[in-house]
Design goal:
The chain is mainly alpha-helical. The chain has one domain. It is built from 6 helices and no strands. It has helices spanning about 10-20, 30-35, 45-60, 65-80, 80-85, 100-105. The chain starts with 8 loop residues before the first helix and ends in a 26-residue tail after the last helix. The model has no long low-confidence stretch (mean pLDDT about 80).
Amino acid sequence: MVKIKVHSRNDIIKAYLRGLGYGVDVDISKILTAYESLNEQEDISKAFDDIIYNKAKKVFSKDLSKMQLVALYKALFIEGKNAEKHGIDALLPDFDKSDEYFKKSAFFIVPHYKVSVIPTQKIEPFTLHK
């Protein structure tokens, strides 16, 4: 298990970004400028999920839940190595260079399952050897 010592709001932001593939030394000044509300939020990871949700809504189908959209966007963000390719700009509001990659990715949401009663079956005994 990894230990993270939190000293400030910036540490929480950097820890969240590490989960998306950014390095320890990521410069978060552009993020803080673009999303000024992060400085006032109490729950920073929820605020970041909201940011990602808003970006994901522009790319993916609207019939997915918020949690599914955020998870799908994060998975494709990490798989596409967007942190390496585009740096911190990939999370800015007007950035759309990776949208085509996201749209072309073959991810499908599994439909909800249905539980039904299985009808009774007659089991007939049989012998292997006579």
